[in-house]
Write a structure and sequence with these properties.
The chain is mainly alpha-helical and about 260 residues long. The chain contains eight helices and two strands. A hairpin with a 4-residue loop joins β1 and β2. α4 packs across α8 and α6 crosses α7. The longest helix has about 45 residues.
Length: about 260
């Protein structure tokens, strides 16, 4: 009995596995430390085997140098796609950081080793809520589906004569645009509450100006905390729609439609 190994398909599967594993290492929600590294590797390799017939079509085997360069290219592509997804969902975390800053919660800042987040209460609350919503709504499945479709936007090196190099110019432009959109989304999410807290500071400043004996800034801490808790609750109720929209943005970014 002879065992025949298709070298082209095996190489394509290995390249796809490198991209998928690199993506799961950095992209939310899979980057959460509660996921063991072995689970990420197994998930990436299992998906690589599943997409092997798709990515191996038209693949031509490379020499040793070309294959090593292709492995490096797929590693960079996987990390870049994962970082794009991270930037999209970092908008929720950044919105929580803005609320902590204007609400006066930054004194209670702490580092969470599981999620690798350094922030106060609302930063960690919004980040954990976005991860929970990704699993509860099935958004992680859309992200995995978008990752599989990314092989159409960025094919493997060696497919249909694709060169053994990676064009970093367009990738850099996409990352810069994603970073700008992250800051814009954070302002859109936390903007209403930030405006309310800013107006509260302005009102307390005017009160201190006209009635210095009241010591309005001393009363400002409980007032701002109360406003933050009340309005952040309303903002938290809108978080499922925000995460759903961000999931669509993440899928569009990794499939090249963003």
């Amino acid at each position: 009995m002879d065992l025949v190994v298709d070298a082209d398909r095996l190489e394509a599967t290995m390249l796809a596995g490198v991209r998928l594993v690199a993506f799961f290492v950095i992209a939310p929600p899979f980057a959460f430390r509660a996921f063991p590294a072995m689970v990420k590797v197994i998930l990436g390799l299992a998906l690589a085997i599943g997409v092997a017939p798709r990515v191996a079509a038209g693949y031509v085997s490379l020499d040793t140098g070309g294959f090593l360069l292709a492995l490096l290219a797929q590693l960079v592509v996987g990390l870049a796609l994962g970082f794009l997804v991270y930037l999209v969902f970092a908008a929720v975390q950044s919105a929580g950081a803005l609320i902590d800053l204007f609400g006066g919660f930054t004194l209670a800042q702490a580092f969470d080793p599981q999620s690798q987040v350094n922030g106060a209460q609302f930063t960690r609350l919004f980040q954990m809520a976005s991860l929970a919503l990704l699993f509860a709504s099935g958004g992680y499945q859309l992200i995995v589906g978008g990752l599989v479709r990314s092989f159409d936007a960025v094919p493997l090196v060696g497919v249909d004569g694709a060169p053994g190099t990676l064009a970093l110019g367009p990738l850099a432009g996409v990352l810069v645009a994603a970073l700008s959109q992250m800051f814009l989304a954070a302002l859109q999410i936390a903007g209403p509450l930030v405006v309310v807290l800013f107006l509260a500071d302005v009102g307390l400043g005017l009160l201190t100006r006209f009635a210095p004996a009241l010591n309005a800034f001393q009363m400002g801490f409980p007032i701002k905390i109360g406003l933050t808790v009340v309005f952040a609750g309303a903002l938290f109720m809108a978080l499922p729609a925000v995460v759903s929209s961000l999931t669509g943005d993440a899928v569009a970014a990794i499939t090249g439609r963003g």
